[in-house]
C-alpha cells in the first residue's frame, strides 16, 4: 500500500455491500445515538479488516489436539491506531474488536480563529512509532486541514508508515491530504459530493462527533 513515486495513490474506496448498507443507515437523520454507535463500530470493524490486509506475518509452531503444525501470527510490534480527537474515538471500538492488542495514540488539534493554523492541545503516542504501521482514524475527511496537520505532527514524532482511514470524504479533503502527504494512502467508505459553506460534507451524515457523543 505504498507509492513507488511521489504521485499520490488513488483513494481506496471500500464498496463492500455490507459497508454500503450500513453507511446508508448511518447517514439517516432518524438513526438514534445507539444505532449510530453500533453502525460506526460495525463499519470501523469492516474498515479495519481492509486496513490490516497486508500486515506482516511470522511463522509459529503450534500443537493442535492432533499434531504439531506450522501456523502464522502477526509479526509484532507492528500496527497501532491513532485517533484524531474527538470523533476519531468513535472508530476505535470496532478496530480494537479486531486487533485488541494494538496500542492507541491520540492527537487533538483545534483551529486558531485568528491565524487559522492548527494548534495542538493533546498528543499521546505509542512507543516505537517509527517502526509501526500507524492507522490514523477520523470519521470525516472534510477540508482535510486537520487531518493534514495531524499527519504532519505524527511524522515529526517519527511515524513513517501511515494510513488514513475515514468513513466519509470529499474531493477537496482528499486533494488537500494528498498534496500535503502524497505518501499516505487514504481509505474511505465514500467520496461525497463536496463541502457546503459551513464546512459540512454533503450529503454527509451531519456532525459525526455530535452524533456519536449525543452533544450539540
Ligand atoms: N465534520 C463532521 O463531523 N461532519 C462534517 O460534515 C464535516 C466535518
Short summary:
The protein has 216 residues and is α/β, with parallel strands linked by helices. 30% of the residues lie in helices and 29% in strands.
Work out the helix count: 6
CATH architecture: 3-Layer(aba) Sandwich
Portion in beta strands: 25-35%
Shape call: globular
Q: What is the count of distinct domains?
A: 1
- CATH domain fold name: Rossmann fold
CATH class: Alpha Beta
Range of helix content: 25-40%
Ligand set: uracil
Q: Could you give the order of the helices and strands? A: EHHEEEHEEEEHEHEEEH
Structural write-up:
- The protein is an alpha/beta fold and 216 residues long.
- It has 6 helices and 12 strands.
- Strands 1, 4, 5, 6, 7, 8, 9 and 10 form an 8-stranded mixed β-sheet that branches. A two-stranded antiparallel sheet has the order 2-3.
- Helix 1 (17-27) packs antiparallel against helix 2, helix 2 crosses helix 3 (92-98) and helix 4 (145-156) packs parallel to helix 5 (171-180).
- The mean pLDDT is 95.
- Bound molecules: uracil (URA).
- Uracil (URA) binds next to helix 6.
